[in-house]
Design brief:
Elements: H1 14-25, E1 30-35, E2 40-46, E3 57-61, H2 63-71, E4 75-77, E5 81-82, E6 86-93, H3 123-128
Antiparallel strand pairs: 1-2, 1-6, 2-3, 4-6, 5-6
Length: 129
């Protein structure tokens, strides 16, 4: 029997869900840039699309929503890369707990099964005995 495990984290808003989806897909790595003056900016690089010819630019994500996701434990920061004017952290989505836990073990111990051993006697042994 499987039991359902509830997610201990609070539910998030639809806008936070969109931001979390962008971070979790990992098509373009999301980075947090912390500038020397303390300003924080989340963003990713949008590649040029062939169809529309648009892109090739840095896209900013809403800082408030990203900070809420970080505080709620939905995203985590990786190892920083630092230079004189800023520190850059890779951002990744945190895995959710599994929906179903391991099977529930019975509280009463069950005796192990012992395979039956077939007694094989040869026909010759049976006739001479």
């Amino acid at each position: 029997m499987l039991r359902v495990v509830r997610d201990p984290r609070p539910p998030i808003s639809p806008r936070d869900t969109d931001v979390l989806r962008l971070i979790a897909t990992q098509r373009a790595p999301v980075m947090l840039t912390v500038y020397a003056d303390g300003r924080r900016r989340y963003g990713y690089w949008r590649a040029v699309t062939d169809a529309a010819g648009r892109g090739g630019c840095q896209v900013a994500l809403p800082t408030e929503e990203c900070e809420e996701l970080l505080a709620a434990g939905r995203i985590a920061l990786g190892e920083p890369v630092t230079d004189r004017s800023r520190t850059v952290y890779p951002v990744r989505a945190v895995e959710r707990p599994r929906r179903y836990a391991a099977p529930v073990t019975p509280s009463v111990p069950v005796a192990p099964r012992i395979p039956a051993v077939a007694s094989v006697t040869s026909r010759r042994t049976a006739l001479t005995a």
